[in-house]
Inverse folding.
């Protein structure tokens, strides 16, 4: 790491650069208020759903051939939660939710 150091009033300050890598860069973010969130979708790809309360569903997929197509999550308390729906969103055949999509 390359640190640029400067003195000011007997205190040393350092500056440096950091690069962050997003592990799941393609996602939709949903704001949900209530106690039972639902995401209905169809795709041949799998998705991870981070429900905003520390719980996660990994590798969720509903193809057009499936009879069930809704991922559901019940929260312990009513509130506002931010759900991350992560995966190849370009492959979605259909998508809807009972929350508000705030990032596509």
């Amino acid at each position: 790491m390359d640190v640029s150091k400067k003195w000011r009033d007997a205190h040393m300050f350092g500056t440096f650069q950091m690069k962050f890598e997003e592990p799941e860069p393609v996602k939709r973010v949903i704001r949900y208020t209530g106690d039972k969130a639902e995401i209905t979708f169809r795709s041949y790809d799998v998705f991870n759903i981070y429900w905003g309360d520390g719980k996660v569903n990994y590798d969720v997929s509903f193809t057009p051939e499936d009879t069930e197509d809704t991922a559901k999550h019940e929260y312990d308390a009513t509130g506002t939660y931010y759900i991350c729906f992560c995966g190849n969103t370009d492959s979605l055949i259909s998508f809807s939710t009972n929350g508000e999509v705030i990032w596509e």
